[in-house]
Amino acid sequence: MLSIRGLCVEVEGKSILRGLDLEIDAGEVHTIMGPNGSGKSTLAHVLVGHPGYDVKGGEVRYRGRDLLALDVEQRAAAGLFLAFQYPVEIPGVSNIQFLKSALNSLRKQRAESELDALEFLDTVKARMQQMQMDEALLYRGVNEGFSGGEKKSNEILQMLVLEPQLAILDETDSGLDIDALKRIAAGINAFRREDRALILVTHYQRLLDHVRPDFVHVLQDGRIGRSGGPELALELEQSGYGRAVPGETGHD
User: Which residue range or ranges hold the ABC transporter domain (predicted)?
Assistant: First the structure.
C-alpha cells in the first residue's frame, strides 16, 4: 500500500528526515515511536501533503502511484487521512456540515453517488454511538469548545465516517484519560480491515495495550533506527530510547 524510499525532508532549512525507508501492506498497523523532534509528525504531514515541509529527495508510492506528485485534495480522494495531534477549531462551521461536505466531496471524486441528508444522518449517528459521543456535538462548530478528549474522539469519528484506505494518527492518544483512551482505541480497532492500513504515531505503550500493532519502528537521526513487533514498544517503555536504539540522540 505504501512504499517510502530514501525520503529526505527539510523544515525551514533544517534537515529532519534523512533517507527514511518504510514499507506498509494493506491490513497492517505500524507504530512510529521516537523522542521529541525525531521527525514523527514531519513524516505524517509530508504524507498528506502539508505545504510547510520541503521534500528534498526520495520516493513515496501509494498503491502504485507517485504520492508526492498529488496535491492534498487528490491524496484525500485517493484514501489518505490524518488525525491531528492538535485538532483545530473551525468556528461557524458545524460538525455535521463539515462531515457531510467532506464525505460527499470524497464520494463525488470517487464517482459514487452523494448521500442525502437522511442517509448521512443515519451513518454519522451510528458512528457517534460507536464512539460514545454526545449527538449535540454534531451541531456545534468543529471542535469549538470541545474538551481534549472530545477533540480526539472527533478525529476518530471523522476517520470512521470518511473510511480512508490509509489512516495516519498523529499522537491521537496524547492528553487522554483512561476512559477516553479506551473509546479512541475501540474506534481504531473498529476501523481495522484487511484492505486498510494504519500508521500510529505515539510516545507511549498505553495505546498499544488496546490497539496491537503488527510492527513498531523507532525514528533515529531522520531514519528508521530499529523495527520490531509489539514487544519493541514494551522494551522502549522499560529502557528508553537510548538503550533500545544505540546512538539515539533525540536532537534531530
Answer: 2-246
The answer to whether the beta carbons of residues 54 and 32 sit under 8 Å apart is: no
Domains of the chain and any CATH numbers: 2-239 (3.40.50.300)
* Distance separating alpha carbons of residues 55 and 117, to the nearest angstrom: 41
Mean pLDDT of 186-192: 96
CA distance 33 to 220: 9
Instruction: Give the count of alpha carbons within 13 A of 143, CB side only.
Output: 17
What the block records as the C-alpha cell of 70 is 498529488
Is pTM, for the whole model, over 0.70?
Answer: yes
Q: Length of the chain in residues, anyone? A: 252
Closest to 35 (Cα-Cα) out of 170, 172, 218, 181: 218
Closest by CA to 38, choosing from 20, 63, 22, 51, is: 20
Mean pLDDT of 13-26: 96
Which pLDDT tens digit goes with each residue over 64-105? Answer: 999 999 999 999 999 999 999 999 999 999 999 999 999 999
So what's the pLDDT on residue 111? Answer: 86
DSSP character at residue 69? G
> CA angle, corner 90, sides to 87 and 93, nearest 5?
135
Q: What pLDDT digit, counting tens, does each position of 2-15 carry? A: 999 999 999 999 99
Cα separation, 214 vs 228, in Å, equals: 9
